[in-house]
Amino acid sequence: MAASSLFAFDVFQVLFRQLIAQYSRLFRWHVLRYLARHPLLAALNVLTVALGVALYLAIQIANHSANRAFAASVDVVAGRAELEVNAPNEDLPDNLFPKIAHQAGISAATPVVRGIVGLPRYPGEYLDLLGIDILTNEPFRTFALTDFEAEGRFDLQQWLRGPRTIAVSETFAREHHLHAGDQIEVQVNGRGRQLTIGFLLRDSIAADPHLAAMDIGWAQELFGRAETLDSISLRLTKKADPQKVANNLQRELPPDVTVAPPTQRSEEVARMLSGFQLNLAAMSLVSLLVGMFLIYNTVEASVVRRRPEIGILRSLGVRRGEIRALFLGEALVLGALGVALGLVGGYWLARFLVGRVTDTISTLYVLVNVRQLVIAPWIWSSALLLGMTSIIAAAWLPARSAAALNPVEVLHHGTRLEKSVRLSHGWIVAGIALLIFAGVLSFFALRTGPAWLGFGAAFFVLAGFSTLAPAATRSCSRFLGAFIRQRIELRLAAQNLGRTLLRNSITIASLAAAVAMTVGVAVMVFSFRQTVGDWIGQTLVADLFIAPAANEIAGPSSFVPREAIEYLKSRPEVEELDTYRGVELPFRDHTIDVAVISGRNRRNLRLRKGRNEEIIPRFYREQCVLISESFARRYHLAEGDVIELPTPEHWQRFPILGVFYDYTRDQGTVFLSAKNYVRFWHDDRVHSVALFLKSNADPERIALDFLRKFSRSGEFVSYSNRILRTRIFQIFDQTFAVTYVLRTIAVVVAVIGIFLGLTTLVTERSRELGVMRAIGASSWQIRRLLLWEGGMIGLLASALGLASGICLSLVLTGVINRAFFGWTIRLAFPWWSLAVTPLWIIAAALLAAWGPAWRASRLDLAEAVRSE
């Protein structure tokens, strides 16, 4: 029995080796040799796969690097802490430190003061300055403090003696040529200060070279916070339960003080960025989707070119499965090269995109500085898996159709062309069904969630219109064929659209998908821009805005000195002065943005319900709040509801007086009057001021006088109403810069598809074109015929893409934006841009068709009309 089993195993091994050897020979002869003969087609397919994979990989790397950079900065500040005590707006009373440090279960505690300072000598640069207690910070520290001369030495007396001696990272010192004893000017709270470079931070901080440290006492003096801290870091005893210790501490501390693990902050930021990053990732996949159309076209072209080969192989006994494996293998060879090139290109593209992504994140969400790309293994593997899966999926249908070819039929010309004319009504039904399903997903994305169902709706919009491409192509072919009587090339081109229905439909669908994304994104961006423009025109009504320059980099972190405010109030040209203060408060296990504002009835908010002249005066008089639309949607609140906010003494209830439209933060904003904030939080500092001037006042003159008096070293920035509007739209354009890059690459990939599709048609109709030349058609007539076909493909793809893009814009604007960000965007169409879209798409199609048309006009007649 054992001997027979061993014999069977040996036989199996022999047969398996023979099969592998046979397939290897077939693969070399019929795949590798074919690719070597057609290097341009192979190169274009490798390029399209590489572009799709590179875009996906680059966006994933940029997103992951930004998340890791922020998490790393949190890790450096928190060090080895297991718990962190925080108060909103860096106002943790330092007299709580002894009480907290002696609680049960705590083995070590250290206070931290943190602030951002601007550097006027280095425009755009900053220092993230940590004030640490050198005597209690040792168990928490993840970096080494040393002097410049000898690594490992540290002069404690010099550190404590100061004055204002700081340690900077090695990278920062090297980039700015700083040495021990150098003076560096910083801006904090609208004032210039001199700091002394004394030490280096080593072993640290791949996170952010802008990190610096100084003694906590000097830091409190620098930031004007003699009795407050940012946080207190805690380490626990071995047997202590972190949750139990946190709960015990929470009961002993004021309501507005929170106790949580340091990682909670980075997790919260990751959640906050998830919608923005998911949008980028979804858009990067569109290029990969368009690339799948091209892989399909290429494998189908290979099948068309080698139908006689397939017939001969099948006649010689090659099985269907082997034929299918040959064409799948061809796709995998191209795909593997494309994926490999895409992985390399994606890394370099990420180096370009990461700056744009992090600039947008820093402007809209949280300050992030990415100095190096962080690439997790899962990013490489996901890009590899996604690329190879898309290739197999795209190549499966043409490979299966090659295996199903009848050997007798494929050895005769023309059969496949005639069969391809027949079109099932199921395509139309499927297309309509997919569009209906997109509507259903949109409904659930808005009503019940999850929000990512909106991306499903966008995908099914594209899929639905792609499925309708064959019916649209056939209808267009029949209409043009019946309508055109005079020009023979034009009539033949129209008829050929329907005769090669399968091929043309794929080409048209791929280009239409790219056009749809272009149109959809253009409409969404235009609508958003128009909505923001109207909103700014209604709410941004002050004549002059003044703020500390450091706030340009780090957001609201520096305060306007009281003497500067008093000076502005005393100017006779100033009719009214409004103030703004940005704070963060805990709310429902999240941190929310609260805008503390003062003024009268000049702030003309766009309210969802009610009238400004009734609600705004009540807002300034009563204990209440106004909330933005996105905040209301995120937390399921409405007019008349009540929210509770923690103050240093106890929780306070604030009725919601109104909901207003706002486009500054997708997380939402709560407006609180300065009167109520001073009443409950006992703090009247402000981050910026807005001036309403008398009719004959000159804003530029007032700003110049102010800057001469208070901003000799650039401590303040001022914006007139016009300049601030320009600045807002610059930020807006920066936000969508990455979107434009993704959109452009998708269109380039689709135009390559036209070239591949028409090249396939030239091969498929080589006999027909040869006969036309033989009976008297000139090379120019053949060339015009192919150019007319390319133009018709561009025209039909433009029409289908415009229809699909408009539907896609409804999903992007009304579903995805609202589901993810909570914004109501008024739909508006850039009619001029939409009108010229068919022109440049047709021009691109003609350009792509020129190569195949030139090749068709130079066919060898004898070779083309030769019969087996």
Major beta-sheet overview = 10 strands, mixed
Question: How many beta strands in the DSSP annotation?
Answer: 21
Low-confidence stretches: 414-420
Query: What's the helix count?
Result: 30
- The Cα radius of gyration reads 34 Å
Principal-axis shape: elongated
Structural class: alpha+beta
How would you state the average pLDDT, rounded? Answer: 78
Please report the distance between the alpha carbons of the first and last residues: 55 Å
**Strand percentage:** 15-25%
Q: Could you estimate the helical fraction of the residues in percent?
A: 55-70%
Report on the structure:
This protein is an alpha+beta fold. Helix content is 60%, strand content 15%. The chain contains 30 helices and 21 strands. Strands 1, 3, 4, 5, 6, 7, 8, 9, 11 and 12 form a 10-stranded mixed beta sheet that branches. Strand 7 (183-188) and strand 8 (191-202) form a beta hairpin. The longest helix has 45 residues, at 320-364. The radius of gyration is 34 Å and the shape is elongated.
Topology, please?
Blueprint: H1 2-37, H2 39-78, E1 83-86, E2 92-93, H3 97-101, E3 106-118, E4 126-132, E5 144-146, H4 156-161, E6 165-169, H5 170-175, E7 183-188, E8 191-202, E9 211-215, H6 216-223, E10 228-229, E11 231-236, H7 242-252, E12 258-260, H8 263-305, H9 307-315, H10 320-364, H11 377-403, H12 407-410, H13 415-419, H14 426-447, H15 453-467, H16 469-483, H17 488-499, H18 501-539, E13 544-548, H19 551-554, H20 562-570, E14 574-587, E15 590-598, H21 612-621, E16 625-628, H22 629-635, E17 642-646, E18 651-660, E19 669-673, H23 674-681, E20 688-693, H24 699-710, E21 716-720, H25 721-735, H26 737-764, H27 766-774, H28 779-821, H29 831-857, H30 861-865
Parallel strand pairs: 4-9, 6-8, 15-19, 16-18
Antiparallel strand pairs: 1-11, 1-12, 2-10, 3-4, 3-11, 5-8, 6-9, 7-8, 13-20, 13-21, 14-15, 14-20, 16-19, 17-18
